[in-house]
Write a structure and sequence with these properties.
Keywords: Cell membrane, Membrane, Transmembrane, Transmembrane helix, Transport. By secondary structure, the chain is an all-alpha fold. The chain contains 18 helices and no strands.
Length: 432
């Protein structure tokens, strides 16, 4: 077995641990969302769980990216997993005390989110340590597969567990999966060390340098700005799909719908992981976004659970192609020693859209779009004749608008010269 094969095996060990922890996180996310919605019947309360599980991680990403370049990335992954355990354990203990309130859940998921900010940039940067450039697409596809597991497997399992057991069992399972992730990193730590920087600047100097470096790369920066807009619309879908479905079905069917829809990510992630992708990542990114927008819009048109699942499946098929194209374009244009800082900066900028979506989705649904689709309102009497009226139909209309705009952005990305030049730069470097 050559050195590249051994390195890829070590990557697979770490990846396996992250796969299990992603499944556990998905169990908890689904269970807490259903638990809160059933207690409050509020889309706002539901979406706030997503916001608090995301915002702390988002705010800390620039700092954690600097840490990923300064310190051992595998040790950072262990610290992140242990911190996630602490957040879930806090919620579990408060539930045992019988004094659970909404703010306890928000605080617990915030603790886990802080830990994710430490783990995620270190994991992404560690890929460049372990995997040769020829295997970047396969590694990225497997990472997308691990991420998709929390949407593919977790909702179905969580729906069953919630119907037969108490939510506390779900939290205990999540804690166990994080322990598996820690064990996986410990297995390979002695075999591979993270390249270390010798010139230690201050955090803010390194963050500033990473931002200047990103600004100097016009194509990557243009791509990140456009993707931040796409992230806003994806964030609306994440926040509102559950509440929309719960207006037409129950939580068990919601779990089935999420798992079946997300199986589209499994199909395309496996294909990418096994065979890679075509040469033109820019074309694949643009093409995939256009179809993602189309299927997104169609999810909002119908009230039939089966049609929503079908278009959800097609929507999720496109996401690994979008994510892998984006990741490969950036990874092949960023120097390895800058990967941690630059990845965290890219993530921070692009995910501003998620913050805005998670913060506004509940208000938009409860106070703007759903009221517009009352049977006696103007949109209820016009557009409502096509997509339906009443609870959840305002969310459906918001999905239609968002999907159309995502498709338009997909077409725009393919026409930006600086983005197209990213592939040309990689080809020129390889020739020299």
């Amino acid at each position: 077995m050559n050195a590249h094969d051994k390195a890829f095996r070590r990557f697979l060990i770490i990846w396996s641990g992250q796969l299990f922890s992603a499944i556990g996180s998905g169990l908890t996310a689904f269970a807490l969302g259903v638990f809160v919605f059933q207690q409050t019947q509020s889309t706002m309360s539901y979406s706030l769980i997503i916001l608090f599980s995301f915002l702390p991680s988002f705010l800390l990403l620039p700092f954690s990216g600097v840490l990923a370049d300064r310190f051992d990335r595998k040790k950072m992954m262990i610290i992140g997993d242990i911190g996630s355990i602490a957040g879930i354990l806090f919620i579990f203990l408060v539930m045992l005390s019988g004094q659970m309130e909404l703010w306890h859940i928000y605080l617990g998921v915030s603790i886990s989110s802080i830990s994710a900010a430490i783990l995620n940039p270190a994991f992404r940067a560690a890929v460049s340590d372990l995997v040769s450039e020829e295997l970047y697409s396969q590694a990225s596809g497997l990472i997308q597969l691990a991420n998709s597991a929390q949407y593919l497997i977790s909702p179905l399992v969580a729906g069953f567990l919630l119907s037969a057991f108490d939510i506390k069992l779900v939290l205990l399972i999540d804690i166990m999966t994080f322990l598996l992730a820690v064990g996986a990193v410990l297995l390979i730590m002695k075999h591979h060390a993270t390249p270390q920087k010798h010139d230690r600047q201050s955090f803010f100097q390194e963050m500033s340098e990473a931002f200047r470096y990103l600004l100097s790369m016009k194509g990557v920066f243009s791509l990140v700005l456009l993707m931040s807009v796409v992230c806003f619309y994806i964030g609306l879908l994440q926040s509102l799909f559950g509440p929309m479905m719960l207006t037409v079905t129950d939580s068990k069917t919601l779990g089935i719908a999420l798992s079946v829809s997300a199986s589209g990510m499994l199909v395309s992630s496996l294909l990418i992981g096994l065979f890679g992708m075509g040469k033109s990542k820019v074309f694949m990114l643009s093409f995939s976004l256009v179809f993602a927008g189309l299927f997104y819009a169609l999810m909002g048109v119908f009230t039939s659970v089966w049609l929503i699942i079908a278009f959800g499946f097609l929507f999720f098929i496109t996401l690994p192609f979008v994510n892998t194209s984006l990741e490969v374009l950036i990874r092949t244009n960023v120097e390895n020693e800058r990967q941690g800082r630059v990845w965290s900066m890219i993530t921070a900028i692009s995910q501003i859209g998620f913050v805005l979506a998670f913060g506004s989705a509940g208000f938009l649904a409860d106070h703007v779009f759903n009221p517009l689709f009352d049977p006696d309102r103007l949109l209820g009497q016009t557009v409502g004749q096509v997509i339906g009226t009443g609870a959840g139909r305002g969310i459906g209309f918001l999905f239609v608008l968002s999907g159309v705009l995502v498709a338009i952005l997909g077409m725009m990305i393919g026409r930006v010269r600086k983005i197209r030049e990213l592939e040309l730069q990689v080809v020129e470097v390889r020739k020299t």
